Every structure is written in C-alpha cells, then in structure tokens.
Amino acid sequence: MLHNALRFVLIACLFGAGPLLAGDWPQFRGPGSLGRAATEDALPSDIGPQAESLLWKTELPPGHSSPVIVGDRIFVTGARDGKLLTFGLDRQTGNILWEQVAPYEKLEVIHAIGSHAQCTPAADDERVVVFFGSAGLFCYDHDGKPLWQKPMGPFSNTFGAGSSPLIVSEVVILGQDHDQHSFLMAVNKRTGDTIWTTDRAEFPRNWCTPILWDNLGRKQIVMAATLRVIGYDLETGVEAWTVRGISRTVCMTPVVGEDGNLYLAGWAAGGDENEAIAIEPFAEASAQYDKDNSGTLEEAELPDNPIQQRFTQVDRNKDGAVTRAEYEFFQSLFERGQNMILSIKPGPAGESTESHIRWTQKKQVPFCASPLYHDGMIITVKDGGIVSCWQAETGKALKQLRLPAPATDEYYSSPTYGDGKIFFANQLGVVSVLAASKELKVLHQAEFGEDIYASPAITDGKIYLRTAAGLYCFGTK
Which pLDDT value is given to residue 11? Predict the structure, then answer.
C-alpha cells in the first residue's frame, strides 16, 4: 500500500502545480486530474446530511465549481445576486475567511441548469487562479489579496463556460472551446501575461478541462473535443499529435492511468451506434423552409427538427440566421461523430489515429462524468446511474450495474476514489459509495436533497462535497 501511495505522489508531482503536499487537492479532480486521493487514509462510507461522519457544513451561494484544497485553505467559487465570487475557507473548520468579487461588463448566457460559477479554481502553495467565463481569469494569494486579472468573455456560447484552468509550474493553462474564437493559452502565473495562444477556431463548444500528459518524456497538454483528441507542446502550444474519431461534443476530462496510458470518453446525441441523427441536405431544407428566400434559415422558419432544436449551436456567429456553411458544418458533425470510450498509448506524434489507439468501447459511454482509473480498471458512470467497470488493458467489460436511484438521474459530478471506495453523486443529490473492485458492491447511499454538480475532493481522510447549498466535510472522528 505504501508503495502505491508513493507511486501516486510521484505521478502527481509530474503533473502538479508546484511544491504541493501529498494531501493537497489543487485543481479539478485533484492532483494530475486523476480523481483520486493521494493517500489511503481511512474514510467513512456512511456520509450524509445527518451522518455521524459530518465534521462541518458551510453555507455557500450556488455554483457548480468543485472545491480545491492547498495548505490550510479551501477555495471555491459561487454566484450571488449577480456577483461572481471567490471564497477562501479554513480547511479545518470550514469558516469563510475571505471573499472576492470578480468584476465584469456583462453576464454570459448559460444553460437552464448552468451556473455563472461553473469552472473549478486551480491553486499552488502561493496563489489561487479562478476563471469566470463572463469576466476572465483572476489571481489571488491565499489570503484573498488580488494579484492580477485578465479580462475575457462573454463568449459565443449559450451554455456558458465550463472548462477549468490548471497550474503547471510557472504557467496557468486555460482551454476554451466556444462556437467562435476557441483557444488554448498559457499565462504567466505571477503576472497574468500571455506566454502563448493557440487558435482552436475549428472547434465549436466543448467543455473538456485540459490535462498534462508526460508523453514519453515530453510534457504535453491534452484536450479532447469535437471529432478529435489533440496533444499540444507545453512550452509552445504547437500541436504535437492528434487522434480522430470521437464524438461531436466532449464534456468530460481525460485521465492518465498509472500505466501511463490515456483514457477518455465523448458522448453527444446522435453518436450512439444505431441511433444516428440524419438531416436533409441544405438545398432540400432551404427549398422547404426558406420562406423569405434570404438564402439562410431562421429559427422561426424551421420545424421541430435537429437543426431547430440546436439552432444556437448551428448559428455559430449568432446573427440569427444559419448559412449553408454553418448548416453543412453541423451536418458533418452528425455524420462523423462517434460516441466512445477509448485509450491512447504513449508516443503519438502527428497523425496517430491508426497507430496509437489501444482500444475503443462504444457502449455505456458517459456524458459529463469523467472516467476513473483504479487498479488496472476504468470506472465510468452514465446518466441513469449505469456504472461500468472496464479492463484498462483491453477495454473488456468486467461489470455493470445500475445504482439504486431513479433511472432519470444525470451525472455531472465525476467519480472520485479514496480508501478502497468510489464516491458517485448525481444531479438530484443522491450520493452512492461503491467498493473499488470489479464487483462494484454498493456500500452506502444517501440523499442530500440538494443538487450536486461538483466533483468531490478527497484528502487526508476527509471528503469535501459541494452541493447547491454549501460545502460538507466528512471524516472519521
């Protein structure tokens, strides 16, 4: 067990922000975006709003960001009365020590169930960086003193921004895919100055948080997005490799296994086998629906069809009309997008689709919840509470079960591991605790009665769970 813990710490240091402690949880899904505790401290299974394991609860304004933990601080964001807020909490007590308001000119449009505080902060031993799509990047020290800000947004995206920043040594990495002007950038963490920016204009809206991959000694930023996965050189932002053939939209974040391989998934409506969405050619649609003979299609002209249902996505420049080019671009996404879980082996360079995909799996593909690697297995959760365990080496299905909760449940929170247990939280606030084995035995289930979108943070024998109403801390007393 000690050997595994030391190996985890070494892996996390390769992907981490700075001189962090093994008990820190510095970014979305923790050290290296692995979604797992760094140590095997004992954790309670019987968590819940009235459980004996509850150490404290702190009320917070609503937000979808997950908590990050560095040193004696917890950092999280929220939105209240039109204000975009960053909070610094005491790690031991949960007391709010400070809050800062991020200024903006205009709040961006968000999804009906979205939040203006969707992106998880990133922190190191000196500072915390937060991102609000409506306002940009903000950097504070651990006591809440503003250090710099980088205005951005609002972006061309009617669902809002959701990809979180990460800190790699002296730089902040931020990826943003929207219907226009998508980009990946590196920023000096001390000054906020841009180091490099890579144009990703080919990509419409996606919500993958970038991760760092040590690809055979080359540190690369990996992003999964519309139809392809890309690795970028960390120092320059130049595209180093690509693997093609995934879904038309990607909402989850990849994970690097202890075996050094990359694991990811992508799901979008119409991408499942035997459930393809087909739309007629633009010429036929125009002949039927272009009532004013403008050469474009307006939303009011269209019937209830896949284009009308996704009009704000198809209309990438947001001028209220879909051109032939916009229509045919989206049509091609329906034709080419494939929902799948896949694994990529180390060493890709250039076009690597045929050479570096280890395996693909097209069943039970998760939508937003990121995959978890544990003990030679990949664990996923699909909307409806379907948990699957796959053999990491081959992609072979080992076990599947449906969690004992309503089949309509959706999972925006990603599974998180600690102490031989995996914690799952659905949108309705039902938390399930499963044994981390291929049997996937259900150990406990609790209803919080509060929506949950954030992923848990687990460190030093404590579970930090953010709900729509606040932040809970559980541990053994």
Answer: 43
- For residues 229 and 152, membership in a common domain is answered with yes
Identify the three-state secondary structure at position 90.
Answer: strand
**Rounded distance, CA 395 to CA 455, Å?**
25
In a domain, 274, yes or no: no
pLDDT at 9 (0 to 100): 40
Q: Is the pLDDT of residue 16 over 60?
A: no
Phi and psi of 232, rounded to 5°?
Answer: -115, 145
Q: Give backbone dihedrals phi and psi of 10, rounded to 5 degrees, phi first.
A: -65, -45
Residues 323 and 348 in one domain: no
- Asked whether residue 352 carries a pLDDT value surpassing 80, the answer given is yes
Residue range 264-283: mean pLDDT, rounded: 94
Question: 87 and 197 share a domain?
Answer: yes
Question: What percent of the chain shows pLDDT beyond 90?
Answer: 91
pLDDT of residue 261: 98
Asked whether residue 292 is assigned to any structural domain, the reply reads yes
| Residues sharing a CB contact under 8 Å with residue 225, sequence separation 6 or more, in sequence order | 177, 200, 203, 206, 208, 250
CA angle 129-132-133, nearest 5°? 135
Q: The whole model's pTM is what?
A: 0.94
Please state at what angle helix 324-336 crosses helix 282-289, rounded to 10 degrees: 130
Tokens of 245: 């053939």
* Tokens describing residue 261: 């391989």
21: Cα separation from own chain's centroid: 23
Rounded-to-integer distance, Cα 340 and Cα 261, Å: 16
* pLDDT per position as a tens digit, 201-213: 999 999 999 999 9
Give the number of domains in the chain.
2
* Domain containing residue 315: 282-329
Looking at the domain assignment, is residue 276 inside a domain?
Answer: no
Q: Let me know whether 298 and 347 are in one domain.
A: no
3-state class percentages of the chain: helix first, strand second, coil last, to nearest 5:
10, 40, 50
